[in-house]
Write a structure and sequence with these properties.
By secondary structure, the chain is mainly alpha-helical. The protein contains 11 helices and no strands. α3 packs parallel to α6, α3 runs parallel beside α11 and α8 runs parallel beside α11. The radius of gyration is 18 Å and the shape is globular.
Length: 257
């Protein structure tokens, strides 16, 4: 296999033909994420504290990225423009808007600039979806949120840390939305490891899998003797990695995309 054939098979085709993730591109994107996260933390840790306020202020940008992704899923964008709105390019696009906005807000010592910009951006693709699509499964968001809240309440009995609770809820929302789509609406899992586990056990595995993994990780972080800002940043990353696909999946199912 030539280099071009390798790149086409494991990277390009998965985007162009929406084949989902494979082991090669999964490991590649994971490695890039780790390096990017480390660089971002090194730069921002001296300028920002990764606390509950910052996590909540970032949520509109996550909604923006997830809903823009659904705009592409719905077929409103055509190739090659649509490729920019697929993973991994969508993360670069959202970052290119989020990071400069955050730097401006920090420069002006007013983090609400960051919040309000995110709210405006999030409203645009949501309005596009609401204006052009009918709601097919209105129950998906309430059901996913309710299920995630139940498990977060259990987690809250073990952790009183607000950042941990937000991160845990985000991951459980992703697990709950995935379960709803796989179990009741005929969707399929994109990621390699969950897809393998689901093939062995069934869609229900997503919820206990998420619960156990992130309960252990977050409880460990709560007690770890690491710098508080580093722990906050890790929880922030966990939130983003859970909430982004969770919101996207719930939106897709809501509109029947």
């Amino acid at each position: 296999m030539s280099l071009w054939e390798f790149v086409k098979k494991y990277y390009i085709d998965s985007i162009v033909y929406k084949q989902g993730y494979n082991i090669v591109n999964t490991l590649t994107w994971a490695a890039i994420l780790l390096v990017a996260a480390w660089l971002i933390y090194r730069y921002l840790s001296k300028r920002l504290f990764f606390d509950k306020k910052f996590m909540l202020y970032t949520i509109p940008f996550i909604f923006f990225g997830s809903s823009v992704r659904v705009v592409e899923d719905a077929g409103f964008l055509q190739p090659p423009i649509s490729y920019i709105f697929m993973t991994p390019m969508i993360y670069i696009l959202v970052f290119s808007l989020t990071f400069p906005t955050l730097l401006i807000a920090l420069k002006m010592r007013n983090l609400k600039i960051y919040l309000y910009t995110g709210l405006i951006l999030a409203a645009i693709p949501l309005l596009i979806l609401l204006s052009n699509l009918q709601i097919e499964n209105w129950w998906v968001f309430p059901a996913s949120i309710s299920l995630a809240l139940v498990f977060t309440l259990i987690f809250s009995a073990l952790s009183k840390n607000d950042e941990s609770r937000i991160a845990f809820f985000s991951q459980m929302l992703d697990g709950s939305a995935s379960f709803m789509g796989l179990q009741f609406l005929g969707y399929w899992e994109l990621h390699v490891l969950p897809r393998f586990l689901i093939s062995l056990t069934g869609p229900w595995i997503m919820i206990p899998l998420k619960f156990v993994i992130f309960l252990l990780i977050l409880l460990y972080l709560d007690k770890a003797e690491e710098e508080e800002n580093l722990k906050g940043f890790i929880k922030f990353v966990i939130m983003v990695l859970g909430l982004a696909p969770g919101v996207r999946n719930a939106l897709r199912m809501t509109f029947g995309v």
